Amino acid sequence: MLIYKKISKKIPDLKLKLIKAGINQTPEEYVQKTVMISIYLSLAVVFIGFMFLKKWQVVFALPILIFFIYSYFIHYADYKAKKISSEIEKEIVFAGRFLIIELNSGVPLFKTFENLSRNYDYVGKYFENIVEKINLGTTMEDALNETIEIVPSDNLRRLLWQIINSIKTGADIEKALDSSIDQIVREQKIEVKEYAKKLNPLAMFYMMMAIIVPSLGITMLIVLATFIGMTLSLTILMIIAGLLTFMQFMFLAIIRNSRPNVEL
């Protein structure tokens, strides 16, 4: 357990990242689980590799596999926090407008938080957290500050800051929220326009590199192998198929990650 503790200390803000990702584990437990997953997956890959590789190649590949798989899975908390942030971004405009409508209707701020927590899945969890803290005796300002620290979304953090500043200064919360929501909507519209500009070049690049070039390349390779008498073994064909599959997934991931998380 000591080695996991040392590794966890070398990862900046791991504890905060786990909280933002909603992972109920200590940094040491998270690192230990990641290491064990890396070892088991590496052993599974190496077991399959026995059919195609020599023993010395398997022994050499094992530590490299463990390192790369660990390097990938150790960032799972970042990925999950980003995913939660993306879901919050889809709700943030509607949740903000919900707050404004409730407050304009004369509903008290605390009751507004309660109502919002019951109507939105992702944004609602953080307002539910605020409500719970207040019910346990924490002041509203402190509850908001504590929640801001664990929110993975910048826009939700901005809304909470606006509420805190309005409480401190006695300003109109509705106007402050309305201004923030308008700014978020403008930023989201800009993101949509930028995505539209990126999509056409990405689609063309995908068609060329992931469909046309591989199809023509395989055809030319087969024809060339026939003329020069080269034998294409099953291993070579499987490697080519694996590389093409990996390329397809990479392009799809790039296009998917480029899409803005917007619900207007």
Q: Return residue spans where pLDDT drops below 50 for at least 5 consecutive residues.
A: none
Number of helices: 11
The H/E string reads: HHHHHHHHHHH
Relative helix content: over 70%
Largest sheet: none
Number of domains: 3
Which CATH first-tier class of the largest domain would you pick?
Answer: Mainly Alpha
Shape, principal axes of CA atoms: flat
At the fold tier of CATH, the topology name of the largest domain is Receptor-associated Protein
Key terms for this structure?
mainly alpha; 3 domains; 11 helices; flat
Describe the protein:
The chain is mainly alpha-helical and 264 residues long. The protein has eleven helices and no strands. The protein starts with a helix and ends in a 6-residue tail after the last helix.
Secondary-structure map with pairings?
Elements: H1 2-9, H2 14-21, H3 27-49, H4 55-73, H5 76-104, H6 109-119, H7 123-135, H8 140-150, H9 154-169, H10 173-228, H11 234-258
Helix pairs in contact: 1-3, 2-5, 3-4, 5-6, 5-9, 5-10, 6-7, 7-8, 8-9, 9-10, 10-11
